[in-house]
Amino acid sequence: MTVEQLITWAVVGVVAGFLAGVIVKGYGLGLVGNLIVGVVGAILAGWLLPRLGVSFSVINPLVTSICYATIGAIILLIAIGFVRRAG
Questions:
Q1: With contact defined as beta carbons under 8 Å apart, do 42 and 74 qualify?
Q2: Closest C-alpha among 33, 28, 77 to residue 69
Q3: What is the pLDDT of residues 16-57, one digit of tens each?
Q4: Alpha helix ranges (H) inside 52-60
Q5: What is the C-alpha to C-alpha distance for residues 25 and 7, in angstroms, rounded to an integer?
């Protein structure tokens, strides 16, 4: 990934973190925590999903990126929620 791609994923990740926090109630980490998880989830999803063969296009590339990032953030929030509840 280039630096520009990482910056784009970080910005998209902030949006995705907010959306994931709204979608996954009960597993959230607060606003700031969800935004951080969104950035990490966006980078993770941007790297992992294409390698798993998951590919789709929605309206335009930015909306598609937000969808990818939101999926990554939701998965990460759920995983963190499971770990927190198990511990």
A1: no
A2: 77
A3: 888 888 888 766 677 788 778 888 887 788 788 888 888 777
A4: none
A5: 27
